[in-house]
Amino acid sequence: MKEHVVEIGGYPIRLGQFLKHASVVSDGAAAKELIRTHRIEVNGVIETRRGRQLQPGDRVCFDTTCYICR
Hints:
- By secondary structure, the chain is of the alpha+beta class.
- It has helices at residues 15-21, 28-36; strands spanning 2-6, 13-14, 40-42, 45-46, 53-54, 59-62, 65-69.
- The chain contains two helices and seven strands.
- The strands form two sheets. It has a five-stranded mixed sheet with strand order 1-7-6-3-4, with no helix packed on it.
- A hairpin with a 2-residue loop joins strand 6 and strand 7.
């Protein structure tokens, strides 16, 4: 599994915003759809809330890639 560290300027950050910041999706509608289809895991648990607040150290995984919040 590939891992990427994503530097965030300020916390907390919402999951939808994080997906855009990490270039996983291009816009909020794409983030909403990706989350709605149960394809995103946060810290090993499937997440269905676009507004989920992420903190430093959280791991967001999609397919075979994980993004680590820093």
